[in-house]
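Late entry, written up from scratch paper. The run itself happened at the end of the previous shift, but nothing got recorded in the book at the time, so transcribing now.
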Amino acid sequence: MHRPEPSTAVLFDLDGTLVDSAAAITRCWTRICATHRLDLDEVLRIHAGRPATSTIRLVAPRLAETAVAAIGTAHLALEYDDTADVTARPGALDLIAELDRMGLPWAVVTSGDRRLAEARLDAAGISTKLLITTDDVTTAKPDPEGYLLAARILGVPASGCVVVEDAAVGIEAGRRAGMRVIGVEGAPAEVVVAQLMDLLDLL
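Output as recorded:
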């Protein structure tokens, strides 16, 4: 079997990949959907990997953009303060420590804004030298802009990057960036690892 060229950088999604924020996400969407009469089941089905405003547009396409923005702002306000049970996913801390030991650059590329991403990283005990958020790009996932920006800042070619994702929109973003994509368990990717530490065998 053909083995890919050695990787020059690893680019991680945040929620569902490096951190477990599922309970907080569900709580916040439950409150927002109840307040604004949005379909909670549909929101929870499609939200993964998307900014809140993108999710709102999909479930309520007739809403005025001002309403979408207002609901998105309200949703973020809830998320900023709901980090008490956000934790690092099993193996995440060991994996990034090993990447640092190997001297392999890594970054986090998320569909959240910087304040939210930093709050969740802090809650999980993860420190990253490079964090790309929606504050840094014009278009969020599935657009590849965030992943391409991370590669450019790290000074590595896109073809040498491995994207680690849990959501379909993030997997699409990685593929569109011309990067190798590996999914965490349950992700709709061609290559999936059962545990984060298994990623080391694929780099």
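The longest strand covers residues 161-165.
(Scratch paper discarded after transcription.)
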